[in-house]
Design brief:
- The chain is of the alpha+beta class.
- It has one domain.
- It is built from 10 helices and 15 strands.
- The strands form 3 sheets. Strands 5, 6, 7, 8, 9, 10, 13, 14 and 15 form a 9-stranded mixed beta sheet that branches. It has a 4-stranded antiparallel beta sheet with strand order 2-3-1-4.
- A hairpin with a 2-residue loop joins β14 and β15.
- The chain is globular.
- The termini are far apart.
């Protein structure tokens, strides 16, 4: 019977400001997950944090888009919000954009990535957690993992990967989707995924077997709410080894801290820094953006792990480079290209400021 891995995440209050999660809120998530395992709703589960976001990592056999799983995640965020309110944590309940749960968590604020799989003899999976960045930020690393032979040696030398992968790309602004086959359509693919604020890779499928290799959360808070409510802070799940890229091929893209949208006020470009769980507490200029990689072996649906994969000296250069890039970009202050271009600023707090000047503009 296929199993499902669901990662559903939300920012329900920060400690201090937007820099981290309070242990009591995380603990509430952990206790509720333990109860859900006890009751048989879930096979196994963990609550983990990256910055001020809580990620519910849930293994079950109810399939994706399951109403009971989604309602449970929503209720867990609601009860965590109550604790965040009691402690007067910052932005308590921030990502819960509606008053009541209505069937599916998508479109209600939290982000979700769900993947169905038939567990192999050995099933290594990676759960990525991002903070101070946006959905779409996995576009570049996914491309490297599944299409770039300079990143993924298996695309060249492993028979199981040679057939390539297919990408489902979502047009986030117009609510449309399209599938591109790699390698033969990579130029067409890149036309779109090179604009991650508009087009995001939802899932990647192994063409050899038809199995889903990777999935990411593509919910965009600003497009749901129609205003600025913090960033989407995405998550992703990636299957590894065999017909999928190896663990090291899945991590290799993060040796370069590529520039992503987010950072202070969700309004700046900054380097995406791979960090250990202990360093997932963005404090400098509310950043720089972070990504944590949690490695698991699945054993009959049980989550064996996590291994904190970026807690490895081989990512020190990437972290150093991210700090150097941050130093350089910060010198630009409020100027582009550190600050986002105007059309991306539409969903920040800036238009309200600009509106006050509207009647002072005269014709030239
Ligand atoms: C970025 C983020 C923070 C806040 C900033 C201002 O994703 O959440 O950078 O935008 O700390 O927060 P407010 O407007 O809540 O004072
Ligand atoms: Mg926050
Ligand atoms: Mg966050």
């Amino acid at each position: 019977m296929p199993q499902t891995l669901s990662v559903i995440k939300a920012d329900i209050g920060g400690f201090v400001g937007h820099s981290a999660m309070h242990p009591e809120v995380l603990n509430e998530g952990r206790e509720r997950l333990a109860q859900a395992v006890q009751s048989g709703l879930l096979i196994d589960a963990q609550a983990q944090a990256c910055g001020d976001d809580m990620f519910l990592i849930m293994s079950h056999d109810r399939g994706q888009d399951n109403v009971d799983i989604h309602r449970f995640a929503w209720d867990t965020f609601v009860s965590g919000t109550e604790i965040a309110k009691k402690l007067k944590l910052y932005g308590a309940g921030q990502d819960l954009l509606v008053d009541a749960f209505s069937g599916n968590i998508r479109g209600m604020g939290p982000g979700s990535a769900e993947l169905e799989l038939v567990e192999r003899q050995s099933e290594p999976v990676m759960v990525f957690m991002g903070d101070k960045t946006s959905s779409g930020s996995f576009n570049l690393p996914f491309y490297k993992m599944f299409s770039d032979p300079f990143n993924t040696a298996g695309l060249v030398i492993a028979e199981a990967l040679h057939a390539g992968f297919a990408y489902e790309v979502q047009d986030l602004k117009n609510h449309k989707k399209i599938v591109f086959n790699s390698p033969e359509e990579i130029y067409d693919l890149l036309v779109f995924i090179g604009s991650p604020a508009h087009y995001a890779i939802k899932r990647v499928v192994a063409r050899s077997t038809g199995e889903v290799a990777a999935v990411s959360s593509t919910e965009k808070l600003s497009l749901i709410a129609g205003r600025y409510v913090g960033k989407d802070d995405p998550t992703a799940i990636v299957r590894m080894q065999g017909a999928f890229p190896a663990v090291g091929e899945v991590l290799e893209p993060f040796t370069t801290p590529y520039i992503v949208e987010g950072f202070m006020r969700g309004s700046h470009y900054g380097p995406w820094m791979p960090v250990a769980m202990a360093d997932a507490t963005p404090s400098r200029f509310d950043g720089p953006p972070r990504v944590v990689a949690l490695g698991f072996q699945l054993a009959n649906g049980k989550l064996v792990g996590p291994r904190d994969m970026f807690a490895d000296v081989s990512f020190n250069n990437a972290r150093q480079e991210a700090n150097d890039i941050s130093d350089f970009l910060r010198k630009h202050g409020p100027f582009e290209p550190h600050r986002l271009p105007l059309d991306e600023m539409e969903y920040t707090t800036m238009p309200a400021v600009a509106a006050k000047m509207a009647n002072r503009w005269a014709d030239i």
